[in-house]
Amino acid sequence: MSKKSNTSKRYTAEFKRDAVALALSSEKTVTEVARDLGVSPEGLRGWVRQAKIDRGEGPAGALTTAEREELVRLRRKVREQEATIDVLGKATAFFAQDKSR
What we know:
- This protein is mainly alpha-helical and 101 residues long.
- 69% of the residues lie in helices and 0% in strands.
- The chain has helices at 13-25, 30-37, 41-54, 65-99.
- The longest helix is centred in the C-terminal third of the chain and has 35 residues, at 65-99.
- The chain is elongated and about 80 Å long.
């Protein structure tokens, strides 16, 4: 397991996957496993919770990682389209005003 080396404490997907597997297979508590790995217990608990959701073991209505990524992508696309619509509306108003002169 290799931790991504930067100061923001971001971890690779591989590191998270391996940490979750260790937490689920170990007789140690999540807190103990987190301490051994040098990650926060809250972070490891979140990774474990998300892994369970991704496997279909989460609460009803919980979003999988793929669904979360799709939601982020779609929200970004909506923002871009709203900006395009705004620009086109302003251009239409400008040209309509210009024709009336």
